[in-house]
Amino acid sequence: MGPIGTVMSTYRIQGATGEWEVVIGLEVHAQVSSQAKLFSGAATAFGAEPNSQVSLVDAAMPGMLPVPNRECIRQAVRTGMAINAQINKWSRFDRKNYFYADLPQGYQISQLYHPIVGEGAIEVILDEKGPEGSTKTIGIERIHVEQDAGKLMHDQHPTMSYVDLNRSGVALMEIVSRPDMRSPAEAGAYVAKLRQILRYVGSCDGNMDQGSMRADVNVSVRRPGEPFGTRTETKNVNSVRFVMAVVEQEAKRQVGVIEDGGAVVQETRLYDPDKNETRSMRSKEDAHDYRYFPDPDLLPLELDDAFLEECRASLPELPDAKRHRYETALGLSPYDAAQLTLEVETYLQFEEMLDAVVKASGKGEHDLAKRVANWLLSERAGLLKSIPEGAAHPKNTVEANTALIIAASEGTISGGKAKEIFAAYLTSDIDLAAEIDANKQTSDTGAIEAAIAKILADNADKVAEFKGGKEALFGFFVGQTMKAMQGKANPQVVNELLRKALAN
Amino acid sequence: MTDLTELGVAAIRDGVAKGDFTAVEVAEAFNANVAAAQEALNAFIVATPEKALEAARATDAKRAKGEPLGKMGGVPIGMKDLFATKGVQTTAASHILEGFTPEYESTVSQKLWDAGAGMLGKLNLDQFAMGSSNETSYFGNVISPWRRKDGGNAALAPGGSSGGSSAAVSARLAPAATGTDTGGSIRQPAAFTGISGIKPTYGRCSRWGIVAFASSLDQAGPMARDVRDCAIMLEAMAGFDPKDSTSLDMPVPAWEAGLSGDLTGKKVGIPREYRMDGMDADVAASWDAGIAWLKDAGAEIVDVSLPHTKYALPAYYIIAPAEASSNLARYDGVRYGLRDLPDGAGLQDMYAATRAAGFGAEVKRRILIGTYVLSAGFYDAYYTQAQKVRTLIAQDFKNAFTLCDVILAPTAPTAAFGLGEKSDDPLSMYLNDVFAVPASLAGLPAMSVPAGLNREGLPLGLQIVGKPFDEQGVLNAGLAIEQRAAFSAKPEKWW
Fold first, then answer.
1. Is the CB of B102 less than 8 angstroms away from the CB of A59?
2. Which tens digit of pLDDT belongs to each residue from B247-283?
């Protein structure tokens, strides 16, 4: 593996005539999280009654004018900062002109010539469990803000189509990558990482199934090392899995076309998830002439230093930094760190829990992080999956979790016991503190030594076998001892005392 | 009793306030004139006598209670049918918006109602404000109340696009009216009909609720009998509007209180490029008279150069149609206005049929020009180039204003022409705006005031162009001319 950023993908399409490399660039449309639309005060809630969130501006009534929404601009800037991109203090809105029934103004207000965010990059991890080297830097060319269109409804009337303008004018960020990806896995990892960053920043909810985030996938193929081939663009792909499928199917299709003696046509395509194939939508010849020009209703957008400073100061700790901190300052494994930082909800829960446990026990974060991570990722995770309410169970409180984590971390009870107690606590009417107390492990060496002595005496044959080299029997003695102690013996103490007794 | 319709804004405002007459009496008098002239002049698309009366009653009631009456208290006005008026049809003189009744009120018209004005009706105009003669209205030509003193009764153009406004004010159908000016649409009709009109600095008046023609140029302004009336009405119309991103966030000066015809210490620039070969002799003479009047008012006259003037008209006829082609895309038959849906038509067919039926020839011409100049492959040669010219023209004025405070020029190259004389020749029609367009491209305040009559007995206007935000300087120079020109001519009533 080479250094970060120059990792060579080994993904190849095996064609009839040899190997092909796939080249991918993505344009991700992310709906900006904002109460109001980009240029009007109308609301933006998902799933509202058709045409209930439409202002006079959104419906393009005569004489209506757009006014930029500060929050949408702020979110785009924060997003740019989160991908270490150049923030353009001077940007401008352009009109993209075309006629369609879902586009009331007859133009979309976008930013062609002077986007608000310039060059940036994000780093994707191709294999979370793999070595550090399996990361890759994907360049981002620009982010611009633009208006979304409305929605046509074709199922309301036998001969007419209806228009829902709720989405008309909603703010989108278009995040345009460099053609830096070389495999379905890289494209998938890029979208997932971008989604993670957007969710951390809070600039987009990342709900791909609701259309809050969707990707236009540009794919071309070439012989390794040769110049780029002709690309196609598959529009509006709305899941990470589909993005990967589009890359795979489209690359295979293009290789087939070329190997059959044809040429790839530059065109817009659609993905059909049911058939897992892409279909031609329109070719370059039918492409619109969008007649872009600066929107004369809007002044150029000029950002001052105070605004930029506020944007920067309001950024949270970002995924890469957080993961790194979990590994170094908290001593977590790369895998645990990745798992805990994947979703905003997860890290928030982890940090809240860790904080509570630190406060309640007086120990350091480093001493407790692994225990809290285990509790959240394995012990409790499994348990919550098995109950109908899941994490939303009313008794799944920070206090209850904290008590159990502390008891387990102090060796008062085992992790397994903690999980058992929590299950009982959630599903029946027991007192948590009393239950923990009742299940306290004993570190009373006298009692444990007595139990061990009795077990060794009762199993003299096995002791002989152990001493003869059958070390696997150690587990048997541990089990017997724990059984004799009714599960309340501290396993560590049991281990130590057993070693000592068997060494005699 | 005096004929109330001979009174202007200030006289009506003061007379109502003093109790010389009631606002209702004023409204009734103008309502009567509106009704009597409609068939002959066609100045209004819709008359709203009850709206005028309603506002007048409110003013009279306020006076009875001793409440303040507002800057325009008791003054009925005409509203160019480009301003959205809640509950009253708003058409931009087009078929495509025929029957369209907004649920909202434009910022400027709302400010006027808030200042105590009442609405006599919606005034005719060139369709979507595209035209210089008011011959492109779907609702028919406006006929100027003026006639040549040549024994003929040729129907004359009231100018455009605010032709209904100019005709109504000069024919005493309204003491004042709103206009909008994109490339001279307030100033040229004011000049043609012997009234005053000012286009303020771009951004002074909110564009919110005004049907857009060319967003970077459109500005609302008043048209009235004299300079004082313009100052009063502009104060009521202007002001920052957060709903218009291009609105100026500046206080509105007290222009009326600041009026002074004494120009001592002021410098008036005379742009040499405006004195063109073959210039109409009467227009040239009125310009010379204007120079003498301003000198008499105490101003120093200086020669200035606006070297890129000859490129202004071509640049304007690229930028304005480009913006219009996009601004008018919303009239598509989907949400409001005309929808022409032939049997079995799809979406594209509906667009084509609706827009073919809904737009007039001049509007279509400009949409086509605008679409062409923005097209891939032509954009840089036309639109980008025109924007560069626009920058140079603005720079010309900036340079000139280092030498002078205001610029004096004719408003239009000729007096009013006859209806039909230029309607088959768009280029000669466009040339009528040659003196008006540069100030529009530069976003500068500019006004036209009557300077006298030509040999045919038709009014001629003089134009004053000022520095950005210096409406006061423009109004004062206008006042100085007004005081010396002593223009009192009015059209002889034939309707």
1. no
2. 999 999 999 999 999 999 999 999 999 998 889 999 9
Residue A482, token pair as written in the block: 């724990």
CB pairs under 8 A between A and B: 98
Name the H helices within B181-267. 187-193, 227-237
Q: Kindly list the residues from chain B whose CB atom is less than 8 angstroms away from the CB atom of residue A62.
A: 84, 90, 92, 97, 100, 102, 211-212, 330
In 3-state terms, chain B is what percent helix, strand and coil (to 5)?
40, 15, 45
Q: What is the pLDDT of residue A219?
A: 98
> What's the CA gap between B153 and A132, in Å, rounded?
93
pLDDT given at position B163? 98
Find, among A408, A406, A380, A407, the residue nearest to A395 by Cα.
Answer: A380
Residue among B102, B244, B348 minimizing CB distance to A61: B102
Please tell me which of the candidates A107, A289, A296 has its beta carbon nearest to residue B376: A289
Distance, in Å, from the CA atom of B248 to the CA atom of A34, rounded to the nearest integer, reads 27
Cβ distance B84 to A101 less than 8 Å, yes or no, reads no
Site from B334, B368, B383, B388 to mutate, A interface, most A CB atoms within 10 angstroms: B334
B4-250 has CATH 3.90.1300.10 classification: yes
Interchain CB contact of B395 with A (< 8 Å): no
pLDDT value, residue A358: 94
Q: Does B245 contact A at CB distance below 8 Å?
A: yes
Which residues of B belong to the active site? 80, 161, 185
Q: Which of A60, A63, A297 sits opposite B246 (nearest CB)?
A: A297
Q: Which CATH class is domain A445-503?
A: mainly alpha
A198 has a pLDDT exceeding 70:
yes
d(CA A481, CA A468): 21
Give the residue from B83, B327, B349 with the most A CB atoms within 10 Å of its CB, the best one to mutate. Answer: B327
| Chain segment B367-425, per-residue pLDDT in tens | 999 999 999 999 999 999 999 999 999 999 999 999 999 999 999 999 999 999 988 88
A293-294 vs A94-97, strand pairing mode: antiparallel
- pLDDT average, residue stretch A41-59: 92
Distance CA A42, CA B273 (A): 50
